[in-house]
């Protein structure tokens, strides 16, 4: 019996390993460990090849530059994080528990941020979380493999909204279209949702993000974001009506952000939208500045390869990129860039070229405004429900 008991204890420990002390920290900071190992390798290669101090700094600067997604359209970049619904992260219904979604998203956002904005973290930046909205569509059964896919949803002068989709791969065929008047939450409980269209369901199809949207349907920064959009009336409702309309707003948002269909056949189980901002110390950095210092542009990235030589990397750099490079001279010196990011950009007169404002123009700017209007519907709806509860 003692031997059997010993192996039972070992089995229980193995099944609950994700709940051990410091395991969460390792999962979150694993991309940082990987980065430092790669950086150490670059330094060691400089020593082995007996490069001069200037040549070593130049090589390190080129390595840093190779990490930046130069010329990337922020809406077309996606970060992924794979995991499994382990026993210790599941509830008594044998599903991934609601708390585990938020726990996994910490790792996803951190990994996505390092891949998309490496220059920002290089300056000592950090990304605090302000709010998260979950939209549960299907359960994730215990022991199932799943993947979290993070993309940029929208941004304004302060906030950036990250859309994170929990997806699984069906063994046989995809699930039926989601019926919003009888959807399930993360625990498998039925939830009541008002009809969105004439049939009472939200079609499981890819929304056309390029269709024109009338000004009465969204709010843009120029119009002000303090009032609720007219597409869903949230005024003068009871608490129950407010929550029902909030569900309708949430469903419209999911459809408008083009997140209910995966091209590779994966099934979307849960969608979460996180509201974050960028800070260096206590200074808040506008998202447009952060994206510009990491080479973002409005060009399509669908044809970009995952790996490229330095020359290929620089050929896709946006026209304003030499201005960023100028702020990092001599190679490896980021003091000028940090001074610009933490407030120097305010000193650029309105009449002069503000490259961070024009870097993401055209279709990207139109999509940003459209998505921001959709996100604002959700945020305003949550505020109304909160006021009703309080």
UniProtKB/TrEMBL annotation:
Keyword field: Membrane, Transmembrane, Transmembrane helix
UniProt signal peptide: none
Keyword Lyase: no
Keyword Transmembrane: yes
Similarity section: Belongs to the lcsJ thioesterase family.
Coiled coil: none
Taxonomic source organism: Pterulicium gracile
InterPro entries: HotDog_dom_sf, THEM6_lcsJ_thioesterase
Upper lineage: Eukaryota, Fungi, Dikarya, Basidiomycota, Agaricomycotina
Name of protein: Uncharacterized protein
Region of interest called Disordered, as start-end residue ranges on this chain: 177-197
Gene3D superfamilies: Hotdog Thioesterase
Parts of the chain that traverse the membrane: 7-26
């Amino acid at each position: 019996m003692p031997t059997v008991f010993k192996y039972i204890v070992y089995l229980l420990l193995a099944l609950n390993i994700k709940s051990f002390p410091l395991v969460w920290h390792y999962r979150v900071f694993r991309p940082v460990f990987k980065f430092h190992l790669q950086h150490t390798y670059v330094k060691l290669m400089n020593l082995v090849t007996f490069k001069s101090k200037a040549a070593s700094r130049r090589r390190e600067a080129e390595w840093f530059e190779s990490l930046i997604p130069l010329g990337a359209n922020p809406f077309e970049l996606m970060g992924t994080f794979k995991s499994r619904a382990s026993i210790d992260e599941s509830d008594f219904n044998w599903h991934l528990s609601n708390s585990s979604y938020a726990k996994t998203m910490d790792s996803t956002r951190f990994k996505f941020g390092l891949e998309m904005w490496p220059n920002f973290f290089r300056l000592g930046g950090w990304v605090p979380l302000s709010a998260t909205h979950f939209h549960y569509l299907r359960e994730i059964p215990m022991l199932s493999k799943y993947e979290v896919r993070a993309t940029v949803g929208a941004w304004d002068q302060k906030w950036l909204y990250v859309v994170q989709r929990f997806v699984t791969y069906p063994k046989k065929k995809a699930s039926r279209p989601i019926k919003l008047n009888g959807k399930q939450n993360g625990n498998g409980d039925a939830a009541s949702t008002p009809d969105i269209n004439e049939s009472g369901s939200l079609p499981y199809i890819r929304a056309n993000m390029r269709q024109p949207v009338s000004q009465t349907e969204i709010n843009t920064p120029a119009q002000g974001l303090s009032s609720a959009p007219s597409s869903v009336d949230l005024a003068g409702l009871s608490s129950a009506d407010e929550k029902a309309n909030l569900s309708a707003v949430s469903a419209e948002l999911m459809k408008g952000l083009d997140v209910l269909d995966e091209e590779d056949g994966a099934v979307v189980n849960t969608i979460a939208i996180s509201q974050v901002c960028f800070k260096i110390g206590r200074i808040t950095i506008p998202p447009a500045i952060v994206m510009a210092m990491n080479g973002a542009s409005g060009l399509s990235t669908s044809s970009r390869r995952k790996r490229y030589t330095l020359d290929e990397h620089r050929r896709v750099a946006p026209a304003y990129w030499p201005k960023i490079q100028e702020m990092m001279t001599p190679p490896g010196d980021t003091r000028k860039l940090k001074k610009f990011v933490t407030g120097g950009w305010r000193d650029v007169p309105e009449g002069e070229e503000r490259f961070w404002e024009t870097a993401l123009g055209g279709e990207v700017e139109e999509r940003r405004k459209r998505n921001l209007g959709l996100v604002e519907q959700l945020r305003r709806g949550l505020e109304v429900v909160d006021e009703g509860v309080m």
